[in-house]
Amino acid sequence: AKWVYNFGAGKADGSAQLRELLGGKGANLAEMASLGLPVPPGFTISTEVCTHYYANGRSYPTDLESQAEESLKAVEAQLGRGFGSTEKPLLVSVRSGARASMPGMMDTVLNLGLNDDTAAALARETNDERFAYDSFRRFIQMYSDVVLEVEHYNFEEILEEYKDIKDYNLDTEMTADDWKQIVKEYKARVKDVLGRDFPADPKEQLWGAISAVFGSWMNQRANTYRRLHGIPEEWGTAVTVQSMVFGNMGNDCSTGVCFSRNPSTGDNHFYGEFLVNAQGEDVVAGIRTPQPLTLAERENGGGELPSMEETQPEVFKELCAIREKLEGHYRDMQDMEFTVQQNRLWILQTRNGKRTAKAALKIACDLVREGVIDKREAIKRIDPAQLDQLLHPTLDPSAERDVVGRGLPASPGAASGQIVFTADEAEEWSKAGKKVVLVRNETSPEDIGGMHVAEGILTTRGGMTSHAAVVARGMGTPCVSGAGEIKVDGKNKVMLANGREFAEGDVITLDGTTGEVMSGEVATIKPELTGDFGELMGWVDEFRTLGVRANAETPLDAQTAVDFGAEGIGLSRTEHMFFDPERIVHMREMILARDPEARRAAIAKLLPYQREDFTALFRIMNGLPATIRLLDPPLNEFLPHTEEEMQDVADAAGVSLRALELRKAELDEANPMLGHRGCRLAVTYPEICEMQARAIFEAVVAVKKDGIKAIPEVMIPLVGTKAEMDDQAKIVHRIADAVKKESGEAFEYMVGTMIELPRACMVADEIAETAEFFSFGTNDLTQTTFGFSRDDAGTFIEEYLQRGLLPADPFITIDRDGVGGLVRMGAEKGKKTRPDLKMGICGEHGGDPESVRFCHEVGLTYVSCSPYRVPIARLAAAQAAI
Ligand code: ADP
Ligand code: MG
Ligand code: MG
């Protein structure tokens, strides 16, 4: 079998098509080599080797070694250098690269092939001892960390101490002799820790690094990242071995990262950062603050340092040409890594760049306008989950801001929360229900868990492409990076900003759009839904066939839903209307009533409130349909608890406290979620259904007078048998007839049901004889199908997910086979009886992109979700249809 794919000198075995085999990095290196771009030659060991490695007790296919040697020889021949040579030594990097980009999650080793002899040879050859030993010490540190598991603090300690003694501030002050000395001390430390020498044999180094990279596929942080991003373990990583180019050979050398368009705003401006006389990880690690690539960027507040456009205009021009070429080739915004070695440009990586939701929209719309992609492609490129970022509040420009510091606007949006100084604390505090802002000098991949739960992230070091910035943008978490004037002392848990001290737990606000850091919490405002957002959502509606409605009961929710483009209300939970203090007394009075008379009296007091609610809702919906669900939850959710509340109810009902207490005890249920709830309430207390139906129809008549046509869909909850449905539908029709007669007005309405019990799915054909519409209540259906209590599942679901016993939380993403199977059956049976049956889904799944796709496939009429998720559902529905 072929395990190894070469690239370099204008040709390659692989291409961008072979991403599954070569990983994103390897595939794109091959593609760039074929395009004739300046890529240092090398080869990629395929992901199949990774699979083999794990399937065979961490061992390799027998012919891998010979194939790799062959490829290494080809590189040596191309460059006229030798791996391990003491004349012209070849150094390589060993790089990880999975099919999906997992920035910083796996390991990479640079400058491999160095030992005392090859380092001396490199120094002689380049006539630059400082460079040779700087590379050597970097290699020892990286290799020890990644392959030998000697932690990096060992080396940082040695270097810090050395610089202290020499009274140096920056690494740039270190001389050749200094680095030589450091190399000695590093090697001694490795021997101290491991009890054996640092490996000098380049071959041993190479295979050690290759194994470590394959091994890093299963490290803790890579596992976490995969879980958060739904990347399957089976994919594996590829390993690329590539000849080194050097950005650390002097002041005409540098290393950097650039984007073909701005990843934060989406503006069609070349954007990037670089560090002079530096290597690889330096930019990302935030060791020094980088320089801007373009003049425009520097003038736009990019700092004091000159841009590459000014210092190396020739190289800059070349980079600009590559930007054009790669963006044109991939037809998408590119994130590129480059190194300049003595004024010569090398490209080390390209990929479709991660971007903020705002940038994603702008870039997709711009590319359509530029004629590069079509609308379908634009729609497919927006991650529905990412849209969420745009639908949430930003800082109110008129609110007071107590600005205490400033950094780079690394990931937009506003966030307030309590300061924590470590990722672990962020996780703990957030588990305890607190909102936190993670404050650090810099972040590293181990911090991923804490970054995920934080409202916002603040770092004092690093640029726009630092780890914190990249990860935060990917997660849609607001982030301010490189806030250099702010001092963070993580050990003592203090942050010093503008002469003020902030402790753990103090509240701050970040504006990831401007880079401001503020003391306290700052007011926010609603997002802007026009411009690119409006345009793309317009395209979305051209393609989708699935309707999108919202779950809403308050006028505010209903208005938000309409603003976000909902085509109706799919679920209005009437019980939410009863929690108002003015009403709850009468609600309780009704629940605790001893007999139908008393109940009717209490209900009569609720009627005007309900009518008002529905009138308001119908006005906002202005002709759009609204599904109104009759009272559903277990009544004990409304029961009074305190003595005072009990007394209020007793007064309102005109009964004694003692009598009320007895009645309350009677209502106690062992398992209320499976108890007296849903349509069972109105089967036993038909007055409830009568009152609610009357309120609905009287509201219809009321708005009709103002020329508004209301289309109510009266929904009976938790039906399990046709008999229940018949019983309730009869009441609703009777009341409708009565209201028509009383008012002398005609109106349309429908009576349907929520399908949320397995039995209802089984007999959906029978139920559809009476029900004019179905709404699959997938929250309860999940609960009753799995037998998982929604309120208690938290205690074990997390472990199920971690151990792979469930692919996803079934309360978030629909369980296609089980719960989904019942939905499919219910839908098919319902249609058999009533071919034009209107079918929707309500519940959390209505706003989950994966579940929306399922609903499209099953042929439902619409999904209904919370108002803020309406745009997400619209986009997901369009993607399902394309
Ligand atoms: P990651 O996936 O974490 O970005 P990479 O494999 O891209 O890891 O390596 C990180 C950095 O190391 C690159 O951005 C590049 O600057 C540097 N690097 C990798 N290979 C080479 C090489 N052959 N020559 C010079 N620098 C390299
Ligand atoms: Mg990289
Ligand atoms: Mg339900």
From TrEMBL:
It comes from Nisaea acidiphila. Substrate binds at R573, R629, E756, G777, T778, N779, D780. Mg(2+) binds at E756, D780. It catalyses: pyruvate + phosphate + ATP = phosphoenolpyruvate + AMP + diphosphate + H(+). Residues 434-515 form the PEP-utilising enzyme mobile domain. Residues 530-880 form the PEP-utilising enzyme C-terminal domain. Residues 20-56, 63-299, 314-366 form the Pyruvate phosphate dikinase AMP/ATP-binding domain. The keyword Metal-binding applies. Its cofactor is Mg(2+). Belongs to the PEP-utilizing enzyme family. Signal peptide: none annotated. This is Pyruvate, phosphate dikinase. InterPro entries: ATP_grasp_subdomain_1 (IPR013815), PEP-util_enz_mobile_dom (IPR008279), PEP_util_AS (IPR018274), PEP_util_C (IPR000121), PEP_util_CS (IPR023151), Phosphohistidine_dom_sf (IPR036637), PPDK_AMP/ATP-bd (IPR002192), Pyruvate_phosphate_dikinase (IPR010121). Keywords: ATP-binding, Kinase, Magnesium, Metal-binding, Nucleotide-binding, Pyruvate, Transferase. PANTHER family: PHOSPHOENOLPYRUVATE DIKINASE-RELATED, PYRUVATE, PHOSPHATE DIKINASE 1, CHLOROPLASTIC. The active site is at H467, C842. Catalyzes the reversible phosphorylation of pyruvate and phosphate. GO terms for molecular function: ATP binding; kinase activity; metal ion binding; pyruvate, phosphate dikinase activity. The keyword Transferase applies. Pfam families: PEP-utilizers, PEP-utilizers_C, PPDK_N. Its EC number is 2.7.9.1.
